[in-house]
Amino acid sequence: MKRTLVIAKPDAVERGLVGEIVARLEKKGLRLVAAELRTIDAETAGRHYAEHASKPFYGDLVAFITRSSSFVVVVEGPEDTWKIVRTLMGPTNPADAPPGTIRGDFGTIMTENLVHGSDGPESAAREIELFFPDLP
Question: Which residue range(s) make up the domain with 35?
Answer without folding.
Answer: 2-131
